[in-house]
Amino acid sequence: MVNLTSTDGKTHGQEEEAVTHSAKTSDADTTNGEESSTKKAKSLAKTTTKSFHIMVAGYNGAATPYTFTPPSSLVVAGNTLQHEMAGDQPSWASFYSNQSMAYITGENEPGRVYAVNITKVTPKKEGSAKTLSLKVLGGGGSDGGAVTGGDGPVASCIARGILFIANYGSGSASALQLDEDGSIVDDDAPSALFNFTRVPEGSIGPVASRQDHSYAHQVAADPSERWVYVPDLGADMIHRLSIPESGSACEVDVVGSTKVAAGSGPRHIAFYRKKAGDHIYAYLASELSTTLTAFRVHESDGDLQIIGKPVFALPAGTDPGANKENGNTRTTSEVAVSPDGNFVYVGTRGDPKEDHVAVFKRNSSDGSVVFKQWYHSGGKNLRHFSLSPDADALYLAAAHQDSGSVTILARNKTDGSLTKTSAVISDFEQVAFAGFFTGAAADL
């Protein structure tokens, strides 16, 4: 079992209680901002013809690949994994860019992850579009896949040939070795497992219903692939794992933890580095406090050093609906940084009508952020979003769990604004994930 103090004997208190408020933005301003971007989005779509693949998965037990072709075509691109083939609650996928592989986690108890081979299928009818074929290696179902070592695996990432898993329900992180062909070496147990606890152990955090113990909500590798970070919503910590140069999952270890504000509930973290050798910056979306916090990653040990104060992911004057027992009604979900490093995007949930994606302007000199604007996302309970893999990330796919929909938004790379397109999936029940992906099978 791993205590939440770092291995050097320190618990780093980084995030301050004070929160920076954004400039007030009225509903009218938001609407006008969206309308003013419409012409730009249409102009962009006319010059962007590249198609993109998106994996969509949800708590309905299905995982389906789609193809998005700008400006508005969004169609099924292959077969659906269903009937528990990738677990009964597939809610996250990571992709091995060197292989035609996806790793889909099912939020089961005990947790399992499914290695899925993605191949091209050439149609018999001449002139028909190629499609994708999804096949679970070793067989799917409740007894298939690989054991993650914990309950409710909710996220994963890949670094140096190692598959990292965040087990939300049991508050743990695991490392699974991948073979050269992308298969998981050992299906029966992870190569390394790290169980986290609150400090002091057995204590309950400020948001009692969500912080009765550790809840590992994500695993994310930094751009150098030296460290994997684990936001722990239940313990108000960000744990740090070292990635060995050897690429051996057995040698992964916990090397430290960063303490954040009590009751903030760190959920997801994203990184930015302009080029190899430059400073690395991290951006944390804290779910329970509805904030974005900027950090600089220490070059030698990967420690997170806070920049300024946490910034609200809501326009000033917006009521977060705070509740002592359950936290804010309006919460954050996903976070991403634009490829040029000029903007940070944060999903916000809890709006009674339609959720939003908040846009922050990033200072390239010191990595700090300020709230700029927010834009309607196209549905309710924006659980996940992803940016398209083109050089400018011109599109954003937003997955809405409650409305069962995925909406494609066009991104203006100059001012960071977002505009809803007419490309929508409207009937994917309990959708939890919509991730753009590339790889050998993605170029059709």
TrEMBL record:
Q: Where is this region: Disordered?
A: 1-44
Taxonomic placement: Eukaryota, Fungi, Dikarya, Basidiomycota, Ustilaginomycotina
Q: Which organism is it from?
A: Pseudomicrostroma glucosiphilum
GO terms of molecular function: 6-phosphogluconolactonase activity
What the record says about family reads: Belongs to the cycloisomerase 2 family.
Q: Which InterPro entries match?
A: Cycloisomerase_2, Haem_d1_sf, Lactonase_7-beta_prop, WD40/YVTN_repeat-like_dom_sf
Protein name per its UniProtKB record: 3-carboxy-cis,cis-mucoante lactonizing enzyme
Composition bias of kind Basic and acidic residues appears in: 9-27
